[in-house]
C-alpha cells in the first residue's frame, strides 16, 4: 500500500512538473508563465523531499538521541541534505518570483501589456 502511494505521489509530482514546463512554453501571458514556473518549482522541491524520505518505521528526526545505537539512528533518520536543499530552493524561488512579478508589473505600467508576443514586438521595434 505504501509503495502504491509513493508511486502515485511520484507520478503526480512528475505530472505537475510537466504541466509547469508546458505552461511556461505555451502561454504568452507573463503572469501565467510566472505561475507555471512556480508550479514546476514546487514540484521539484517536493520531489527532493520525496527522495530524502526513508521507508523504515518509525522515522526519526535528524537529531541523535542517546538511547539509540548509532547504526540504528543512521538506518532510520531522515536525510537532512535534501531538506536543506529544498529550504534554499524555496528562498531562491521566492526571490525569483518577486523579481519576475516586479518586472511584469513594471513592464505593464510602461507599455500596457504583459503578453510575450507584444513584448517581443516592442523590444524588437526599439532595437531598430
UniProtKB/TrEMBL annotation:
What is the name listed in the Swiss-Prot or TrEMBL entry for this protein? Sodium:proton antiporter
Asked if the record carries the keyword Secreted, the reply is no
Annotated transmembrane regions: 6-25, 46-64, 84-105
Say if the entry is tagged with keyword Hydrolase. Answer: no
Membrane topology per the entry is: Multi-pass membrane protein
Coiled coil segments of this chain:
none
Give the species this sequence originates from. Thermococcus waiotapuensis
Q: Which InterPro entries match?
A: CPA3_antiporter_subunitC, NUOK/Mnh_C1-like
Amino acid at each position: 500500500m505504501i509503495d502504491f502511494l509513493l508511486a502515485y505521489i511520484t507520478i503526480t509530482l512528475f505530472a505537475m512538473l510537466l504541466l509547469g514546463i508546458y505552461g511556461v512554453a505555451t502561454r504568452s501571458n507573463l503572469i501565467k508563465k510566472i505561475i507555471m514556473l512556480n508550479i514546476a518549482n514546487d514540484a521539484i522541491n517536493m520531489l527532493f523531499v520525496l527522495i530524502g524520505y526513508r521507508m523504515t518505521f518509525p522515522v526519526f528526526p535528524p537529531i541523535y538521541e542517546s538511547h539509540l545505537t548509532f547504526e540504528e539512528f543512521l538506518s532510520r533518520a531522515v536525510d537532512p541534505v535534501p531538506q536543506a536543499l529544498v529550504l534554499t530552493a524555496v528562498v531562491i524561488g521566492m526571490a525569483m518570483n518577486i523579481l519576475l512579478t516586479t518586472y511584469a508589473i513594471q513592464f505593464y505600467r510602461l507599455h500596457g501589456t504583459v503578453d510575450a508576443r507584444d513584448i517581443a514586438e516592442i523590444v524588437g521595434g526599439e532595437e531598430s
